[in-house]
Amino acid sequence: MSFTLAIVGRPNVGKSTLFNRLVGKKLALVDDQPGVTRDLREGEARLADLRFTAIDTAGLEDATDDSLEGRMRRLTERAVDMADVCLFMIDARQGVTPIDMMFAEILRKRSAHVILAANKGEGSAADAGVIEAYSLGLGEPVRLSAEHGEGLNDLYTHLMPLADEFAKRASDISPDTDVDLDEDDWDESEVRKPTSSRPLQIAVVGRPNAGKSTLINKILGEDRLLTGPEAGITRDAISLQIDWHGTPTRIFDTAGMRKKAKVQGKLEKLSVSDGLRAVKFAEVVVVLLDAAIPFEQQDLRIADLAEREGRAVVVAVNKWDIEDEKQQKLRDLKESFERLLPQLRGAPLITVSAKTGRGLDRLHDAIMRAYDVWNRRVTTANLNRWLTGMLEQHPPPAPQGKRIKLRYMTQAKTRPPGFVVMCSHPDKIPESYSRYLVNGLRVDFDMPGTPIRLFMRGQN
Ligand code: GDP
Ligand code: GDP
Known about the structure:
Elements: E1 4-8, H1 15-23, E2 27-29, E3 41-47, E4 50-56, H2 68-82, E5 85-91, H3 98-110, E6 114-119, H4 127-132, E7 142-143, H5 152-172, H6 189-192, E8 200-205, H7 212-220, E9 238-244, E10 247-253, H8 257-264, H9 267-281, E11 284-290, H10 297-308, E12 312-318, H11 326-340, E13 349-351, H12 360-374, H13 380-393, E14 406-413, E15 418-423, H14 431-444, E16 453-458
Parallel strand pairs: 1-4, 1-5, 5-6, 6-7, 8-10, 8-11, 11-12, 12-13, 15-16
Antiparallel strand pairs: 2-3, 3-4, 9-10, 14-15
The structure holds guanosine-5'-diphosphate (GDP) (2 copies).
Binding site for GTP 2: 206-213, 253-257, 318-321
GO molecular function, one term: GTP binding
Organism: Shimia gijangensis
């Protein structure tokens, strides 16, 4: 069972760019079908393991006359009526415009399932617009760069629970039951809270032979994947859904792609891009190290990547069963971790044996805790009380004798936690001061190991 996604929004925000990315080359014009004009394009889209029909509402670019607004409204309404889910796109570089507000109003009235996307989200020029998007009242925006293919992971995590729900509904309905699949069937809160029916998504990444397949097998409790002493024995990258200690969990396994890479003699390079794929679709990334050769260049790269992608990270050191000097080794590991991955300060480091299963309970707990921290929300009142203390303890610098004022702060997002600080001269705040605040947030609000984003925003 698949579903239909309409991409709507004013001209030039990047709808077609996203459509083309999702659909690739296999697109069809909808106007083959009776009653539909050539303003709508339709194509079979894919996003990771999701398959659905995408509708693009481009085709208004030429309409520069004053009937534009009316046409846009009619076109959007038609697309919305054809679709199960609407992806409403704004241009994060421009922020929210009056036409965007008009769209938001149509969508609030007409569509039960709206995903808000702030496109052109690459780079800091989009920060303010992404935050402004919250004001549309359609929940947390997905920060996208259709052009660069960024943020598709977040789009996926918003779409997946809906896709699952549609699939479930389809299988619940037998052909001879008369069921009205109307908007009224839907609980609106689902769209706003995409976490409700979604399994926890984890990826196990690491160097070839670190023991990824062995670990996943052990978690699965059955020999569903192939393992072996040789790199690249498993089949292609896949995701598996399991019930791990009562938590519905989807595990991305990347081992398979190595096989191809090995054949082509590009093992190192492809292992990284392979890991990248998994990282993009995960909420929690387990970086699996081999205790005999921990923190190799490749491990550091993938851990850093996970941080930059804003994933919660758990470091697991495998093959602990063959270590002799466990105490000393653990001290060394912790020291290396702090020195080599300061950006992941406080992330859990768990020793495991994928082979014997030792430590897997602790790994599970660490993953759940990391996920929890990643979702943490701090109240505005607490944040501002905290900010006052931080400013007193260590005031911001005063370039050319003028002190930078940090006035107010709020948490703009979770997954990972992101905070906005309203201040004078945001561009003059040194990196070291931002780091001071981030480290303070981490310690004082108990958010170890999760990437923390801090946005400085000017206020006149
Ligand atoms: P549509 O009218 O909404 O379908 O918009 P298009 O897909 O035609 O895109 C409009 C313009 O924005 C084009 O020049 C795209 O190359 C550009 N664009 C689309 N997505 C992005 C993005 O993520 N970042 C940036 N910087 N430009 C984008
Ligand atoms: P992958 O390439 O990361 O998927 O690694 P595999 O799961 O294929 O494991 C590579 C090799 O390490 C195999 O020979 C495994 O039997 C071995 N191995 C994996 N985990 C452990 C462990 O916890 N202890 C020991 N002693 N060997 C392990």
